[in-house]
Amino acid sequence: MAIQIKSLEDLQKMRKAGIVVGRALLLMKEAARVGVTTLELDAIAAKHLAESGATSSFLGYHGYPNVLCASVNHEIVHGIPNERPLQEGDVLSLDFGAIVDGWHGDSAISFGIGVIDPADQKLMDTCDESMWRGIAAAKVGGHLTDISEAIQLYIESQGSYGILREYGGHGIGTEMHQDPHVLNFGKAGFGPELKVGLALAIEPMITRGSATTKVLSDDWTVVSIDKTNGAHFEQSFALLPDGKPFVLTSLDGGKERLGRLGVEISDLLK
Ligand code: MF3
Ligand code: CO
Predict the structure, then answer these.
(1) What crossing angle do the helices spanning 118-136 and 144-158 adopt, rounded to 10°?
(2) Which ligand does the CA of 69 lie closest to?
(3) Which domains does the chain have, with CATH numbers?
(4) Which residues pair with 71 in a beta bridge?
(5) pLDDT digits over 175-228, tens only?
(6) What are the tens digits of pLDDT across the range 143-188?
(7) Ligand 1: nearest atom to the Cα of 69
């Protein structure tokens, strides 16, 4: 599949989907606490989609049964919401996607329930920051793996984490998953050139131990083979016609987190 280049008008539509996703994740994070189930969070997200005039990117995707992926502790990604009440100390990853006017937004966050192990907090902080470093490394005229290398180098600078190899980021637009695939490791300077109008979902997935995973018998849930906890963060961003990035699924467009890394966001979108 050729890489889909988006016009400013296309990106305005993707921003609408991105805001729905960003708000839904915030609503779910606020609701998530000890005793709440991930199915209840899924219902909050479904309601938010309906109220926003949006539909789910996930529901029915290769038969996926829900609007949310909720992965707890050693489940890294693609967990199916269920009736288990969240417990103190859980590491919860929520992955959510929405379609507005045919355009997708895709984002994920990880956070702790109640008081958590500081090593789990560091795991999540490392994953989160690596994603922002990856986005910050995306420059018009650069190459795709500039992002991959920035993610890997940051994670490796923070300790001995497993970076999942079988899963990565992706182009996003009129489909949730488009070319190119974005590895979360590699050497800079390779792959397609980064151009204005490119939109990518950047999504590092790491564990406190092994990078080796398996898929459970539900055919979806990806768990670490050594049962160590995992984290997953994701944002969809684009390179705008002024050459600057804009993070479509971040409510502030990425202003704060990219600003900290010395990267100014585009003001062509709001
Ligand atoms: N949002 C995931 C991704 O980042 C995909 C979820 S799989 C689905 O690529 F089946 F739930 F859609
Ligand atoms: Co994604």
Answers:
(1) 150
(2) 1
(3) 8-260 (3.90.230.10)
(4) 93
(5) 999 999 999 999 999 999 999 999 999 999 999 999 999 999 999 999 999 999
(6) 999 999 999 999 999 999 999 999 999 999 999 999 999 999 999 9
(7) 11
Query: In Å, what is the CA distance from 85 to each residue of 80, 81, 118, 203?
Result: 14, 11, 22, 26
Helices 8-31/38-51 angle, 10° precision: 140
Report how far ligand 2's centroid is from the alpha carbon of 169 (Å).
Answer: 6
Alpha-helical (H) ranges within 1-93 are 8-31, 38-51
Pocket flag, ligand 1, residue 149 (CB < 6 Å):
no
Give residue 70 CA to ligand 2 midpoint distance, Å: 14
User: What is the 220 CA–ligand 1 centroid distance (Å)?
Assistant: 10
The closest of 209, 199, 164, 197 to 183, measured between CA atoms, is 164
Q: Going by C-beta distance under 8 Å and a sequence separation of 6 or more, which residues neighbour residue 154? A: 126, 129, 130, 133
